[in-house]
Amino acid sequence: MADGELAPDPREAHDPAGFIERLQALKDWSGLTYRELSTRAEAVGDVLPRSTVANMLARTTVPREELLTTFVRACGAGPEALENWLTVRKELAVRGHYAGAEGSGGFGDSGAGREAAGPGDAGSRAAAADGRGTDAGTPAPGPRRTRWRVLVPVVGVLALVIAALTVVAFVRGDDTDHVRQRAAPVTAPAAGSVDVRAVHSGLCLNERRGQRSGQVYQVPCAGAVVPRYSLVPLSGGLWRLHSDHPDYGPGCSGIPVEAVEQDGAPLMDQECGKRGPREAFRIEPFPDPAQGYRIRSAHSELCLEVRDASAEPWTDVVQRACDDDTGAGQLFSFDRR
Question: Would you state the pLDDT for residue 3?
């Protein structure tokens, strides 16, 4: 944060989209990276995964109160500022609109314009008395005053329409980015560091920070850093998906020993070697490489799948019977870093 630069004020936001914009401005003001924010939160006993922050700033709805509190504290805002953030968040969560700033003149000239349009308003009378309403300094004729009374509500409606279109553009911008990500070219498997991306959703495989189970989910690719994955070739055309976790160190993806033949068993990152051949996979095109690749367990012959082909973040990855017709939820790309 620059010396003397005031932190963004949440009371300048009047809708959820504006609130998220202020949160992004707060992060920019703090000058901290996602990793640094996570570290600062952990130092005081809070949990703030980097992927969670990225998801929060990509949404158009207000975050949970606990998440907001942790984030604002990590950014360096004080107790009074935090209280303002929580107050505005509560108002938006309940009513979908925050009017506090409007009541204190936060809308600036637009508020004055609405007052001048009212019938019998002192400001209008003063304008007429000093000649501002006419060319010759005489009071404005009735039709012109009527036009202004009609025009101001029209301008107000237009302002609301523009605001609505701005929000729609913001939301559709996210959707467009998501579709653009989903439409990215499929990359064939090769040894080295990769992001394993589900073709149907455009999301990448990763864990939940702070969760020791090693369960793998699909998350926004920008926050897919826990762990980092790489492909390691094995003999017989098989592959191992190696994981490098910032907290637990190196590991391998695989199916738990007790559920290795089970349809619906979870994909989990654990210490390499504990599950033997259950950590080996065949990676095969379906049927055209441009469509994506299936990851088939060399032990069970089942395929990895984002459960029920969901496009929602934080959907878990499991093994299921391979879908030879559509490959729904079972097609992946191995994007180079």
Answer: 56
